[in-house]
Amino acid sequence: MKSKYYTTWEEYREKHPELEGKPEKVIAPKIEKYEDVMFNFILGLVL
Amino acid sequence: MLDLQALTQAVGDLDEEVVVSMLEEFVASDPSGDEAYKVVGACQQGMAIVGDLFEKNEYFVGDLIFAGELLTQAIDILKPVLGGEESQKVGKVVIGTVEGDLHDIGKNIFGSMIEAAGFEVYDLGIDVTAAAFVDKVKEVKPQIVGMSGVLTLALDAMKATVDALNEAGVRDGVRVIIGGNPVNEDACKHIGADAFTTNAAEGVKICQGWV
Amino acid sequence: MTDIKELQNEREQLFRDLFSGKAPKRVPVTNPATLEFAIQYYGEDLAEAQWDIARCEPVFDKFCQEFPTDTSPVGSLRLPAFYQILGSKAIVMGSGGFMQHPEVMGLMPEEYDEFIAAPYDFIIDTVLPRLYTELDAEPSKKAMVLAKAVKAFSDDWATLGAIRDRTNAKYGMVAPVVSLTEAPFDFMADFLRSFKGISSDIRRYPEKVVAACEAVLPLMIKKGKLPNPNILGFSFIPLHMAPYMREKDFAKFYWPTFKTLVEELAVMGQKVQLFVEHDWMRYLDYLYELPENTIMRFEYGDPKVVADKLGKKHVLSGFYPVTLLQTGDKAQCIDKAKELLDILAPTGRYWFQADKSIISTDSDGKVADNLRAVLEYVYTNGTY
């Protein structure tokens, strides 16, 4: 799914070099979770 | 003059391209109002074919909806040559989705099909109160009132509407038909309607039998 | 309390067995009446209770106590607060307090190409502002509206979820985790092109409709995903348009992407429950082809034919006509349940659910009395 409103962790990580050395293994699921929360909310509005 | 039979067939086949090009060509030939009404008649006969194919399970509701679209489009093309003369209306019908229910697909299909059958249609829309039905019946004095609904609660609203027509003293002047997912014979009796249907084409036939 | 936990475990086992194609200990029972029914039945105002969810707790508690079934009887609720904040035209509260979906059109026919190129972006940029008037605003305003709506949505569902958890713990019911998704063609019809629009499109722009269904398929798969495929739950897919189409149109527009959707979800290890709305008897051979143990709840049709054709492969449910609860007497209602048990239980893959949800009450309480009798009958006599 290509979208300007949906970012995978890999894409996000690339844009955020400041995360270097931060605890990525707990950051990644959190960032992904809210990406998916919004996806589900938005899709929920059209079904 | 265009080939009326071919037009009827094209409408029956729901062949939009052929219907539109035939009608555009016809309008360009500057026909008389009388000729134009014959063409409207041919379209209506095409709609009857659509109804038959629907009953034979060759067409389904989606096809009926498109047929309604096609007919509206046909009439729009013909409008400039139809002139001021009114076509003979076979009767008046007031329709609406009853109070508490917002579903209008079934009502719209029935509305466009019965309009195609030559009725004058007064569509009150959705979530229509009993009082609004009564007011419209008093105003236009239709032969038929059609109530539609999809939710089971629509049955109570239909009953309330028939009761209100009774109270207003206008029930005896009209036939009442109900349509939609939850209607059946028991519901029809309970509501005090004259007929019920879950099939718009059948509903049109019932109404034609009444006028 | 341990008895209740045991009961809950036992009930969970019923569904684990059922969903994996083993005949459970007895036929699981789900209440066709929903929270909306309960709110009215116990004398609360439907509109007020949906706005003020906390008020539903005593109602829900009584409902679960007086109408015992195996699953939590919430139903598929549309809570009004966030729809109000968004200025929804797509889902609105009718005069009776019921949330309903009028015909809307979020996508115009001339926009198909743009939609197909990036459907998720198009939905956010163009469709939402059409269907949700408060999102038809400048960016900052839009962001604020969306934030308020998401917060309201998540608060209301957290409240309802907590009520459900407490009540389930008290009565030992199962609440399968459910994700909602749609067949791509239905998705195109419901909020985007409308019933009327799509019915014309398949004749006017057939190739664009096919391309659009393919373009939204990944979205539908993603939307149907459960947080974890091993949990007790399923993707729920209500099926709309197929009965209103000719078979050749169905085969071209509806079936291919729908089949892929169900297959992809199954490959992830998830269960899928189809609500087979309206009359699908023409399409039973298609339904047979879906992955094994797809759960199918039927609204119409001949249960005998369905049991013969699909009973060895899929989980069957539905058929029980809720209008009978309104029109029949207790004996007739129970006879109907017995008839369905006799036909469907021998497949070993039967789940008692009704043909429709019951969302409204009748004035004399007949529906509730008949419902109680039927649920009790199936609960006690539902053996395979």
Defining traits:
heterotrimer, A: about 45 residues, mainly alpha, 2 helices, about 0% strand, elongated, C: about 375 residues, 6-stranded parallel β-sheet, two-stranded antiparallel ribbon, 16 helices
Beginning-to-end CA distance, first to last residue of chain A: 18 Å
Specify the oligomeric state. heterotrimer
Tell me the helix content of chain A: 55-70%
Q: Could you tell me the mean pLDDT of chain A?
A: 95
Instruction: Please state roughly what percent of the residues of chain A sit in beta strands, choosing from under 5%, 5-15%, 15-25%, 25-35%, 35-45% or over 45%.
Output: under 5%
- Spans where pLDDT lies below 50 across 5 or more residues of chain C: none
Main beta sheet of chain A: strand number and arrangement?
A: none
In DSSP terms (H or I, runs of 4 or more residues), the helix count of chain A works out at 2
Structural class computed from helices and strand pairing of chain A:
mainly alpha
Strand content of chain C: 5-15%
Helix and strand topology:
The complex is a heterotrimer of chains A (47), B (211) and C (384).
Chain A: H1 9-15, H2 24-44
Chain B: H1 4-12, H2 16-28, H3 33-55, H4 61-82, E1 91-97, H5 105-116, E2 119-123, H6 130-140, E3 144-148, H7 154-167, E4 175-179, H8 185-191, E5 195-197, H9 200-210
Parallel strand pairs in B: 1-2, 1-3, 3-4, 4-5
Chain C: H1 2-19, H2 35-41, H3 46-51, H4 56-66, H5 80-86, E1 92-93, E2 99-100, H6 112-117, H7 119-131, H8 139-171, E3 177-180, H9 184-204, H10 206-224, E4 233-239, H11 247-267, E5 271-276, H12 284-288, E6 295-298, H13 303-310, E7 315-318, H14 323-327, H15 330-344, E8 350-351, H16 366-381
Parallel strand pairs in C: 3-4, 4-5, 5-6, 6-7, 7-8
Antiparallel strand pairs in C: 1-2
Helix pairs in contact in C: 1-8, 4-8, 5-8, 9-10, 9-11, 10-11, 15-16
